[in-house]
Write a structure and sequence with these properties.
The chain has 113 residues and is mainly alpha-helical. It has helices spanning 2-40, 45-52, 57-74, 78-106. The chain is elongated and about 45 Å long.
């Protein structure tokens, strides 16, 4: 009986992590498309950074929800889970905002995962 419970628990955890990773990839891919559009339009960095904050709201929300659920399942408090999920989503966004000038200067484009 203990073995069945352990297997069920591990399967649930693996499924949650897969959902979290999928939602992170979806958010990243959406930001990739957003970034490429702005690079093609030759949007100035400052304007891009401002616009990126509101880009891909559905994908960002899905990522935050999936990460928060995983953290709650792990035993975090509501506040800890919320803070962690927001920090992770902010990290994905930061990578695009931070890398925009580099893409502009090198005439390269980000690539989807």
């Amino acid at each position: 009986m203990f073995i069945l419970y352990s297997v069920a628990l591990l399967t649930t955890a693996a499924t949650g992590m897969a959902d979290t990773e999928t939602s992170r990839v979806n958010y990243s891919n959406c930001l990739t498309d957003f970034t490429i559009t702005h690079l093609d339009q030759k949007t100035e960095r400052r304007a891009f950074v401002k616009a990126a904050a509101d880009a891909c709201p559905d994908e960002r929300s899905a990522m935050i929800a999936a990460m928060k659920k995983d953290e709650l399942d792990f035993g975090s408090t509501e506040q800890e889970a919320t803070d962690y999920a927001n920090e992770e989503a902010d990290g994905v966004l930061f990578a695009f905002r931070d890398g925009y000038s580099g893409y502009m200067n090198s005439s390269t484009r980000p690539v989807k995962e």
